[in-house]
Amino acid sequence: MREFIPYGRQSIDQSDIEAVIETLKSDWLTTGPKVSEFEQVMAQYTGAKYAIAVSNATAALHIAGLALGLKEGKELWTSPNTFVASANCGLYCGAKVDFVDIDPDSYNLSVESLKEKLKIKTPDVLVPVHFAGNSCDMKEIYQLAQQYGFSIIEDASHAVGGEYEGLKVGNCQYSDITVMSFHPVKIMTSGEGGICLTNNPELAEILLALRSHGIVRDERLLEDKNQGSWYYEQKWLGYNYRITDIQCALGISQLKRVEEFVTVRRELVEQYNELLEGLELKLPQESSQSKSSWHLYPIQLLKNENGYRKKVYDSLREAQIGVNVHYIPVHMQPYYRKLGFKVGDFPVAEKYYNSAISLPMYYGLSNEDVNYVTKTLKNIL
Ligand SMILES: *Cc1c(COP(=O)(O)O)cnc(C)c1O
Question: Most buried residue among 258, 281, 349, 374 by CB atoms closer than 10 A?
Answer without folding.
Answer: 349
